[in-house]
Every structure is written in C-alpha cells, then in structure tokens.
Specification:
The structure holds three protein chains of three kinds. Chain A is mainly alpha-helical. Chain A is 73% helix and 2% strand. In chain A, the strands form two sheets. A two-stranded antiparallel sheet of chain A has the order 1-2. In chain A, helix 21 runs antiparallel to helix 24. The longest helix of chain A has 34 residues. The radius of gyration of chain A is 24 Å and the shape is globular. By secondary structure, chain B is of the alpha+beta class. In chain B, 24% of the residues lie in helices and 36% in strands. Chain B is elongated. By secondary structure, chain C is α/β, with parallel strands linked by helices. Chain C has two domains: 149 residues, D-Maltodextrin-Binding Protein, domain 2; 152 residues, D-Maltodextrin-Binding Protein, domain 2, CATH 3.40.190.10. Helix content of chain C is 45%, strand content 19%. In chain C, helix 3 runs parallel beside helix 4 and helix 6 crosses helix 7. The longest helix of chain C is centred in the N-terminal third of the chain and has 26 residues. Chain C is globular, with a radius of gyration of 22 Å. Classes of the chains: A mainly alpha, B alpha+beta, C alpha/beta. At the A-C interface, helix 13, helix 17, helix 19 and helix 25 of A face helix 1, helix 2, strand 2, helix 3 and strand 7 of C.
C-alpha cells in the first residue's frame, strides 16, 4: 500500500511485549552506539576552547583527503556492484542450476572461505601471487615489474572477501521466489531471458539493494585490505583515518576523517530505503502452491553459470592452498620442508588467544543473532514512533570504519560511569553492534517477502506480539536468524579493525595474534592460526546448517525448506 | 430483536497518500451487527470494506469513532484481546505447521491441555470435512482445503465474532459456490456473529442476513438482499447489485410516468413534470412481437443462456437489458424485430 | 524453546567468563605491559623477569603508533603499568601527552645522555641502527653490488622494487628520514630532493618497520631500509638477504621503557624497569638471538652482531633536533614525498 499508517504511542503502550522490546533495543543502542559516537563527536568538534569546526574544514580542503574520499567512493561502488553480481551469480547457480549436492557443497565452501578468514589473508595471497616475483605473474606468466599494489588488487581482494555476503543475502531470497511464478511467465510464452529479466531479477531487487548496501558499507569501512594492498598511490579514507590516529597520534583528525566517511554510508543507506521501500514483494503467503523444479534456466546457461562459479571458486581455493602450505613449511619461500611446528606454537603460546576468542564468539553469536532478528522484525513489521531512527542508529556501527568504532569504544568505556575496557563485555558488545546489521538486513529482506497476514492471523488467534514473534515470525525468519548469528560468530573469529583497540591484558584475540605474527614475520604461525580459524568457523557453520535442517524438518513444509535453497 | 454484538460508531480511517495527501479510507461509518447475524460489507475494491473489517479485528486503529464488541469498547484493544476469528483472503496458514497445529494454534496460545486441544481440533476438522488431514502440511492441500483449514482455525477457539476478508476470491467458480454454502451452514449451526467482506454481489446475496454496501469509504445502503435489489437507494447501489436498467422518466400525473414515449402506471409522490430516474430490473420487463413495423422498440441483440434468454432492446434513446425467463413458452424474438415493451409496475423503482 | 535455552546458556557462559576474567586479574599481583617489541623478542625477557622476581608479566603487543594511541585513550584510567620497547620518538610524543611518570632506575646514572630522558620520563634499554637489506638473488640477476651509498638506492634497477616503512606509522621511517637529513647536513631541501628521487624506486611504504623484510626475503621486493634487528631476523629465518651500510653513515634509534602515570601497580612496574635497564637483562639479548645493541655500557655487544656492525658508520639521531622538528618533517614528507610518483 502506498499509504502510510499513522503511528501512535497509545497502541504501543497497550502491548507490553512490544514496548519492552522497543525500550530494550533503544537502551542498548543508546549505550553501545550513540554514547561512544557522542564521545567521538566531542573529540572531533571540541577542544579546550569549546566548539570548533577548524579540524573539519582543514580536512575538507586537504587535497590528499579529497583524493582518499573519492577513492573510497570509487572502490566501494565497484566492490558493491561486482560483489553483488558475483554473489548473484553464485546464488542463482545454487538455487536454479540444478547442481548435485556435492557440487553445491563445494561452491558453498569455496564461497564461504574468504568470509571466514581474517581479511588480510586474501591480501597476502594476492601479494604472493601477483607481485614482481609472484607465483602467477612471475613464475607462471613470466612477467616482471608487475605491481601487486593499487586499485586493482585492492578491489579484487575486497570483492573476493565480501561477495559471500551478497551470496548469503541473495540466496534465500532467490530460493523464496516461487518457481511457479517463473513457470507461469514461461507458460505465457516469455523467453527464458525475458523471464529472467522481467520476473526473477525484479523479485530479487530488495535483495540486490541490500547486498549492494552491505558490500558498499563493508568496503567503505575496510581498512585491513587497503592497508596491505592499496599501496601509496591509492589512499582510501579508513586507512587515512587509521594512520592519522595510530601514526600521527591525531585523534581529532582521525575522528573527523571517519565522520566524513559516515556521509556516503548514510547516503547509500537512505537511497536504498527510498528505492526498495516503495515496493512490496510478497511471495511467501499462507497460501502455499505446489513447488516444482524451475525450467526457467536453459541447460547451456546452467553450464555457463556453473563454469563461472567454479572458476571463481578455483581462484579462492588456490589462495587458501597457499595459506595451508605456508602453515606447514618451516619458512615459506626459503625453507620448504614440512613441519607441524607452527601448529604446536599456536596450541601452546597461542592457547590463551584461542580460548578467549572462542568464548567471546560463543557469547556474541546467540546474542547477536537474536538482536539482529529482533531489530529487523521491529523495523520491518512494527509501527512505532522512532522506527526509522532506530533503523538508522542500528546501522551506524556497521557503517563506521572499525578503527573508529574501536577508538570510540575505548574513549567512551574506559572511564566511569560505564567502565568496560579490559573486560570481555566490551569486545562482545562491539561485535554484536557492529556485525548484527547483516542479520537485521537479512531479516528485513525476508520479512518483506512474508505476508503480514500470517502475523495478523496469529494475533487474531489470541497471541500477543511476543508470542506471535516466537511462534510464527521466528520460525519463518530462522534463516535470517542463523545468517545473522553466523556472521556474528564468523566476525568474532576473524575481525580485527575495531577490536584491536579493545583487546586487553586479560582478553585477547586470535586475529590480533595473526597480525602480530605477520609483523614479526612469523608467517608460519600466522598461517596456522588462520587455518585453525577457518576450520573452526567451517565446523560451526556446518553445525548451524545441520541444526537448521533438523529444526525445521519435522514440521516444515517445502516452503520453509526452500529458504535453505535445498 | 437480538442484542447488538458489534457496534461501530462513526469510525474513520485516514491515510497519508504520497500523491493525494491525506485521504479517507473509511469515513464516519456507523454499523450495528446483531448477535448471530451474518452481515456482509459489499463494495468495489478500494471502497473501504476491508479497512473497516480490519479495524473491527484490531489490525488497524480508527482515527476517530469507537468500536465495541459484545458491549465492550475495544477501539484501542489489541487484536489478540478481542476474541475474534479471522479468515484471510490468502488463508494465512502457517507454512511451518501441520494442519493440526495450524488449527490448534489458538488453543495452544490459550494454554489448553493437550487432550482438550486434540478433541477440539478433531471435532472442528470433522466439521469442515478434513478429519483425515491432520498430519498434512498446508502445501499438500488444495486451495479449497486450505480455506477450510483456515476456517476451522478461526472457529475452533469459539471466538465471539467471525470475520471473513474475501475468503473465496482465490477459488474457482464452482468451488466458490460450494464453499460459501459451507460457510453459511457452519455459521448458522454455531450461531456466531459474522462480518463478511466481498466484492461479489452474488456471493453477498447468497450468504448474508444483511448487506451493507460501501462506496468511497462510506456505507451507502444497508438492508436485506431483497431490499437492496428492489429498492436500491442510489444509482450506485442499483448498478452494483445485479443487472439493471436506469431510465430517464418524467412524471406526467400522480399515477403515471412517461419513459421514452411510453406511459407507465406508477404511483409517485413527485411533482408533476419532474424528471426522475427509474430502476427496472431486466427480468421485470416483458417483450412481445409488435404488430407491423410501427413499434417504438426493436431487438438489437439476443443471447441464449439456457435458463433464460437475454435481449438488448433499442427503445427511443435508451438501450434496455431484458431477460426472458419464460422463453421456453414463446418463440424467440429475432434481431431487428419490432417489439412491444411492457413494464411491470411492481418492478419499477424511482431513485432518490 | 531451543533458542531461549541457548541464549540463557550463552548468557550464563558470558557471565561466568566475565567473572573468571576479573578474578584472574585480581588474584595475582602482576605487572601489566604493552610491548612494542615483537613478542618473540619480548617474551624471553619477561620470562627471565618472572623467574628472577616471581612477578608475573601480563603483556600485549602493539606497533608503536597503536600502543601510544591506546595509552593516550586510557589516560584517565590506565590499564597498564609499563610501556616496553619502541623507538624514542614514540616516547617523546608520549611526554607531550603527559602519560608517563618519571622514574630513574639504578642503571639510570650509568647511561649516556642520549639513552635517557633527563627527568627520567623514559630510559633506553637498547639501541637499534638502521641498515640496507637487499635480496641476494635480485642483486645477482641485475649484476648489482650491495648498496654502499645512499645514492646506490637511486639506481633505476631498483625502480618500484624497494619497500620501506611509512612515516605515518613507523618509528623506523622517522629514523630513516632523519638519517637522510643528517647525511645532507640538515639541509631540508636537499634531503627532500633525495627522498623524492628515492620515492620513484619505492614499491610500497609499509605500516610497520619490518613490513618489507619478508617481501625482500621472498624477492617480491629487491630491498629496503630496516632496523638491524629485523634484518638479522630475516636472515636467521633462512632468507637469502644481504645487509650493507651506506658510506655516508646511517642513523640509529634508542629503544626505551617508561612507567605509566597513574599505574595501578607502580612498584611492580618499577621493578620491571629496573630489570630492563640493567645489565642483567641486556646481557640476555645475545642468548635469545635478539639482535638489539645493548644500551647499558657494561654489556658487550654480541660478537656476530659486532661483526656485522664493524666498519659501519652509525650516528645517533639528535634527540632535541628530532623532537623539535619531527611533526613538521613528517608532515612535509606526507605532503611532498608520498604523492611524488
């Protein structure tokens, strides 16, 4: 409906579960998003003499910063577009190409690899493969004097690292599009291409917008990849902000730079809202059609799709094979004899980091998953004053570069009234509020496809909003819940940019150890840690999928199963 | 007279429209539904009938006015506290629950014990003829079966009122007729107060005790099917319910109206010489072959429909729709044939 | 149901973990340290300290910029007692932020002036000269001799093949730039003209001082300018690299230690500073193959390290001059050298 409903507090106040949820989310957002942000703003705009715009103006006229700003936008746009395209390619192949279970598992595994490893592992593999003595450019192609630094390698690494987010976002949406719709168009005499263009793609539009937004924001905020790959001729803002703080000890300048970065992030977010918000796509209703395997993709197109995916997957597998080898040889490139030594090191000296990381991830995972679907549900389904504000605020920590979130947390939570530094809570909170937006967006996208009447039916049958959420909404958005939960777990295992400032003497993280190992040239332990992280994440993700399948199998119909794409 | 079960008192609902600004979806609607009565809200799409229903259910809240159910003001009460059963156009079956669990949902929410739930669900599924389908998943059922599950789910916890939102519009024609009879029979049997929304006037006439016709957010006429058919209050109602001829006429005496040159006996209180609109249903017009070629009317089109024959007849400046239900007794009239036209006075109704 | 239970379990786990965390900190009475020295250098030193004093060292490693940023952020509620290792410039910047507590260890008096801050805000624990490090294979392929002059690095054969640290993050880079200023008689325009020419041969400026050592070892880069400790570590790992010195001379930077103002555990912190500045610890450097040059006059430089340094012309960076001009010089480098390609 093009019309908007009027909103009243009275209605909210009459619903205790809803009121509690809204208040709880706002308290959390105030504490873990706005409070640190306020501290950051205070740093950026106030000095001894009070309010000042001087640092901001100085940054705006700085030609180096202008270039970095432009570069960031270009990079984020290209990564967003290419990553979404690649994610769509994988999602379409997974859902429609009729692959056997084994091939699907292989593609899934390959697509998830970059997502489940610390970002700089892709960067390192790219440097080894494409530098002047790179395995591909030099040893294979005989090229010399090739630079592995700059726009192209940064863009490639970020695209490979982040496209799985698009894949995870788009796949359930494609799977939820009733093949009958495509069949129907097919029976109306449309060509396959035409159907793809006029039915499948438009139905996936909310997914595209979400995927693009997520990737754009991820690229905009990523500092680890450009730090290693961008070189010096392609500066981007997050790296500049990081260097401003850690290199020049200029908190003010770094805060200002990151606030500049917030502008495009918010702009894209609002654009996406305006664009997707106007359409409603209801394909999951209580009226359930029989499902059939879609014939909407021609056999030759299936083959092309699969070939393209396999090619991309092969590149990823190659990158990670390098990593595996590096973890098993004495000194990569110098002494290539086999050793378990690096694994011995990480399980003795590295054990505290492993233990801490696992505990932190285990705490953050369910909380983050639940928070993601709760907020996603509230903003997609409930009408209450301040809904849009909540949506916006919930995205802030995701859109901000991790370095800035880390610094903001550090400044805000070091002193009373909320002294959290040095503990575990600050790291968990940082992960939840920084990485749950994936779960929030997935929930919103999925809910846009689930007809409201299901919830209305529950409510007419006497269930309050809390009970409806638990009995009806939650089972239906379980895929988004698990996606959100999975992302929080994965990020807890792999992210570094924000939490490098939050680790403490008592609580440290594997990723911090990996970066540390890299700086002290201990490539072996770094690779061994990375392999360990990847294995753990894979095991957990596989476990989650198994739970998801089992949870729904006894009760779930084909409609529900289709969320899983299998 | 039975006590009032649902009372709407001047309720309005506005929406912000992106182009038109603030528009009324429902405007000052007042309505009383008696205990055990089946009242239908009938109207074209966008007339506000669904919004009215959704306000009764509590899915939407009126901007003005009050709603009471069973004598209690429920205007600001949440849907789950209103004791309503709601049947949706798209059925809204929970895709992750079996037929049994779908129907049992409301009882589980109430926290009934397992045995009571089993009994109640079994009974109601028997009642809608789906006794053997308990273990099925919704997607394994046909559209009609799904709708019966939705119906069973809505009545099993014995709500105070039952609300239907175009429940049959997704079914094929034959099933629609079957289902509406089932719904009517079930409603009579359990004697539950029901509000039913449809845009199908035939369905409305078949199923209702009383019909409220809505247009542009307002109720334009309320009454029995019979009243609406024979005594429509406006051209809109006349045209919306059944097929109709609306003819311009002029009052020529206290007992006669002239229509297209024909003088028709019709008692009216209108002033002499006043122009009026006459509503004449097609089956209330009698045609006969005219002698010679001097008749004012002739046949333009003839359609044989089995139970009746439809004619289009040119009469002066108007074209009349005529249904001949006694056609088996007379020879058919040919296209172009001059005819005599006879209006039964009891079938004529002056608008306004 | 499943969901609620797992949430509760996680909450319980979290609470338990959080409590365990806090009690762990309270139970012992350890000294908390941020180290700028890489863990493999710092760990044996701390283990030695634990053995000698029974005081446990909790430590976390950061690059110099990150460590300083954290200490500044934690100023009102310090989480550590001692900042360990890292070039003197970092400590000089820290003094401006008022984060250190002056403390003079027993060894303080014995140290030469350039190895201590007059008020005792910091004390040096080692010296770390810069070196040229090149990949042997690259030199052979291009028929080059190891660079023996600053101008050798301008050879077009090195185009896009040198890696060195970024002045924005790395103390190594700052020491390097001041070395160039010194050899050019502090003529800034001349020095910057050289740095801009050198820029043409630089593939990438790395975040950390040692960032380019592994690429150089692997041949991805031809070479660069590094601290000797990182260069020797690369060699020790088995990479075929060559260390050389410019005949015009090259700078060295002291590595320091300091007590944090408002430290929760100042006594243990002071003990660690006593230990780190003593001959006792610095004589262990050789034993653990940590190739810093000891700062304490009583400790002999290890023989093989001395061998490498033999004949090299090494000069200290003038603390006052560097302190007064650091910010301006680094900013000029960012403005003029970094984009000059």
């Amino acid at each position: 409906m093009a019309a908007r409903q009027t909103v009243s507090w009275r209605r909210v106040a009459a619903d205790p579960a809803l009121l509690t949820a809204i208040l709880a989310v706002w308290i959390l957002l105030l504490l873990f998003v706005l409070y640190p942000l306020a501290h950051l703003l205070e740093r950026a705009f106030f000095d001894e003499s009070g309010f000042t715009l001087e640092p901001l103006l100085a940054s705006l006229v700085d030609s180096g910063h202008q270039a970095a700003f432009a570069n960031s936008l270009i990079l984020a746009t290209v990564v967003g577009a290419l990553g979404t395209a690649l994610g769509f390619l994988f999602a379409l192949t997974a859902v429609r190409a009729g692959l056997s279970r084994h091939w699907l598992t292989f593609l899934d595994a390959a697509a998830l690899l970059p997502l489940v490893s610390p970002p700089f592992t892709t960067s390192i593999a790219i440097i080894f493969s494409f530098g002047p003595k790179g395995f591909i450019t030099h040893d294979l192609l005989g090229l010399t004097n090739v630079s592995a630094y700059g726009f192209w390698s940064t863009m490639s690494a970020e695209t490979l690292t982040y496209f799985p987010i698009a894949y995870l976002t788009l796949r359930p949406i494609l799977a939820a599009i009733d093949p009958n719709l495509e069949e129907m168009a097919f029976s109306l005499g449309g060509s396959r291409w035409r159907i793809f263009r006029t039915v499948t793609v438009p139905l996936a539009v909310p997914g595209f917008a979400n995927a693009f937004l997520l990737l754009f924001a991820a690229s905009l905020a990523d500092f680890a990849t450009p730090l290693i790959l961008a070189g010096n001729s392609f500066p981007v803002l997050p790296t500049q902000a990081y260097l401003q703080i850690t290199g020049l000890f200029d908190f003010k300048g770094g805060a200002v730079l990151s606030l500049i970065l917030l502008v495009p992030a918010v702009a894209v977010f609002l654009l996406q809202r305006a664009w997707v918000g106007r359409r409603t796509y209801v394909t999951v209703t209580g009226k359930v059609g029989q499902r059939s395997r879609s014939r909407a993709i021609a056999p030759w197109a299936s083959v092309l799709l699969v070939a393209a995916c396999v090619a991309v997957a092969a590149i990823i597998v190659y990158f990670y094979a390098l990593l595996l080898i590096a973890s098993l040889v004495v000194a990569f490139g110098a002494n290539n004899s086999f050793t378990w030594h690096h694994y011995h090191v990480i399980f003795t000296e590295g054990l505290p980091a492993i233990r801490d990381t696992l505990i932190i991830a285990a705490i953050g995972m369910p909380l983050g998953g639940f928070y993601g679907v709760l907020v996603g549900y509230l903003i997609a389904r409930r009408n209450f004053p301040g809904r849009r504000a909540m949506e916006l605020v919930a995205m802030i920590n995701y859109a901000l570069p991790g370095t800035i979130v880390g610094i903001a947390y550090l400044i805000a939570f070091n002193d009373p009234p909320v002294a959290l530094t040095g503990g575990v809570l600050i790291i968990v909170a940082c992960y939840i509020f920084r990485y749950s937006p994936t779960g929030i967006r997935a929930t919103v996208a999925l809910l846009q496809q689930i007809d409201r009447s299901l919830e209305e039916a529950s409510s007419s049958l006497g269930a309050g909003s809390g009970e409806t959420f638990r009995r009806v909404t939650l089972p239906l958005i379980a895929p988004a819940f698990f996606a959100g939960l999975g992302v929080v777990f994965i990020r807890s295992m792999t992210a570094i940019s924000a939490t490098i400032f939050l680790v403490s003497i008592s609580w440290t993280l594997i990723t911090v150890r990996i970066l540390e190992n890299m700086t002290e040239m201990a490539l072996g332990p770094a690779a061994a840690f990375s392999v360990f992280v990847i294995v753990v994440v894979f095991v957990v993700v596989a476990g989650l999928s198994a739970i998801l399948v089992r949870l729904r199998a006894p009760a779930a119909g084909a409609a529900a199963r289709s969320f899983l794409g299998g | 007279m039975a006590p009032i079960s649902i009372q709407l008192d001047r309720i309005s609902k506005r929406f912000d429209h992106t182009v038109k600004g603030e528009v009324y979806a429902v405007r000052e609607v007042s309505l009383a539904v008696e205990q055990g009565e089946l009242l239908t809200l009938l109207g074209p799409s966008g007339c506000g009938k669904s919004t009215t229903l959704r306000m009764i259910a509590g899915f939407e809240e009126p901007d003005e006015g009050t709603i009471s159910i069973g004598g209690k003001d429920v205007t600001h009460v949440l849907p789950n506290k209103r004791g309503i059963g709601f049947v949706f156009q798209n059925y809204a079956l929970f895709p992750h629950l079996s037929v049994f669990e779908n129907v049992a949902y409301g009882l589980r929410v109430q926290g009934r014990d397992e045995a009571a739930i089993g009994r109640a669900v079994g009974d109601v599924l028997e009642l809608v003829g789906l006794g053997r389908y308990e273990r099925q998943q919704p997607h394994q059922l046909s559209g009609g079966e799904q709708q019966r599950v939705a119906l069973a789910r809505a009545v099993v916890f014995q709500p105070e009122v039952l609300l239907f939102d175009e429940p049959l519009s997704n079914l094929d024609a034959k099933l629609r007729v079957e289902m509406r009879e089932q719904i009517r029979a079930l409603q009579k049997r359990i004697g539950i107060t029901t509000v039913y929304v449809t845009h199908d006037q035939e369905e409305a006439m078949a199923i209702s005790d009383r019909i409220a016709v809505m247009d542009r957010g307002e109720i334009v006429q309320e009454g029995s099917a019979h009243q609406l058919y024979y005594r429509p209050a406006s051209e809109f109602v006349a045209r919306f319910i059944g097929r109709t001829n609306i003819l311009p006429g002029r009052v020529v005496s206290a007992a006669e109206v002239e229509v297209e040159g024909l003088r028709i006996a019709l008692a009216t209180s209108r002033a002499m010489g006043e122009t009026v609109q006459l509503v004449v249903r097609p089956e209330m017009i009698e045609l006969g072959p005219a002698a010679g070629e001097t008749g004012a009317a002739h046949i333009v089109q003839r359609t044989f429909l089995g139970e009746k024959t439809d004619y289009l007849v040119a009469l002066g400046g108007s074209t009349l729709q005529v249904s001949a239900t006694d056609h088996y007794r007379r020879p058919p009239l040919d296209v172009g044939q001059p005819v005599t036209v006879h209006f039964h006075p009891e079938g004529l109704h002056v608008l306004g | 149901m499943n969901l609620r239970r797992s949430t509760l379990v996680a909450l319980a786990l979290g609470l338990a973990g959080g409590l365990a965390g806090t009690t762990a900190v309270r139970a012992a009475d350890p000294v908390n340290v941020y180290t700028i020295w890489p863990e493999n250098y710092a760990r044996p030193m701390f283990q030695e300290f634990e053995k000698q004093t029974g005081i446990k060292v909790n430590f976390l490693r950061f690059s110099s910029g990150e460590a300083l940023a954290r200490v500044i952020a934690e100023k009102n509620n310090p989480r550590i007692d001692v900042l360990f290792g890292g070039p003197v410039e970092t400590f000089a910047a820290g003094i401006k932020e008022g984060i250190f507590e002056p403390y003079k260890s027993p060894s303080f008096a014995k140290l030469p002036a350039r190895f201590k801050q007059a008020d005792g805000q910091w004390t040096a624990i080692a010296d770390d000269p810069l070196v040229f490090m090149t990949n042997a294979g690259f030199l052979k392929e291009n028929k080059l001799k190891p660079p023996a002059s600053w101008d050798d690095l301008l050879n077009p054969a090195y185009k896009n093949m040198l890696q060195m640290a970024d002045a924005r993050t790395s103390g190594t880079a700052v020491t390097r730039i001041f070395s160039v200023l010194e050899v050019n008689g502090r003529d800034e325009d001349k020095a910057f003209a050289y740095l801009k020419k050198l820029r043409q041969n630089v593939q990438v400026y790395t975040k950390s001082g040692g960032g380019g050592t592994l690429p150089t070892g692997l041949g991805q880069a031809a070479g660069g300018i590094f601290f000797i400790v990182d260069a020797l570590e690369t060699k020790a790992k088995g990479y075929d690299v060559i260390i050389s010195f410019p005949k015009e001379g090259i700078g060295t930077s002291a590595e320091a230690i300091a007590l944090i103002k408002g430290a929760k555990n100042p006594e243990a912190g002071k003990k660690l500073i006593d230990f780190a500045t003593s001959a006792a610890m610095q004589s262990k450097l050789a034993e653990f193959k940590v190739n810093f040059v000891p700062a304490h006059p009583d400790v002999q430089t290890e023989a093989s390290l001395a061998e490498v340094l033999k004949g090299a012309k090494i000069f200290p960076i003038d603390d006052d001059y560097a302190g007064a001009n650091r910010k301006r010089i680094v900013e000029r480098w960012i403005k003029e050298v970094l984009p000059a390609q």
